[in-house]
Amino acid sequence: MDYAILRKRMLEEQLIPGGITNQRVLDAFRKIERHKFIPEEMRTSAYADFPVPIGEGQTISQPYIVALMTECLDLTELLSLPPLLTYPRLSLNNQTKMENLFYQKAGDSAKF
């Protein structure tokens, strides 16, 4: 599966036509390998226009909703967030994935 192509399609077919215009948001969606946060058996749906189960009865929201919420934050500087997940098994699993991407860990917070 070529996830880079799926990411590109997500931008061209969902985010940009849906009105996402913030270049920083679009750049983040170009870079973040969303499929790495999704169980292997569901990875082909990682960039689809619907929520995807990620375990523990939880889902990751569809890309457009995440992009819209991020754009609405209108961030202009580095943001420090508390831990993102309250399910220990999901949190530990994704902490490792985030550290392997481009996030910087600061104490118990993730900096973007």
From TrEMBL:
Q: What molecular functions are annotated in GO for this chain? A: protein-L-isoaspartate (D-aspartate) O-methyltransferase activity
Q: Which family does it belong to?
A: Belongs to the methyltransferase superfamily. L-isoaspartyl/D-aspartyl protein methyltransferase family.
Species the sequence originates in: Candidatus Sherwoodlollariibacterium unditelluris
Spell out the protein name for this chain: Protein-L-isoaspartate O-methyltransferase
Q: What is its EC number?
A: 2.1.1.77
Key words of the record: Cytoplasm, Methyltransferase, S-adenosyl-L-methionine, Transferase
Q: Which lineage is the organism of this entry classified under, starting from the top rank?
A: Bacteria, Pseudomonadati, Candidatus Omnitrophota, Candidatus Sherwoodlollariibacterium
Family annotation (Pfam families): PCMT
Subcellular location as annotated: Cytoplasm
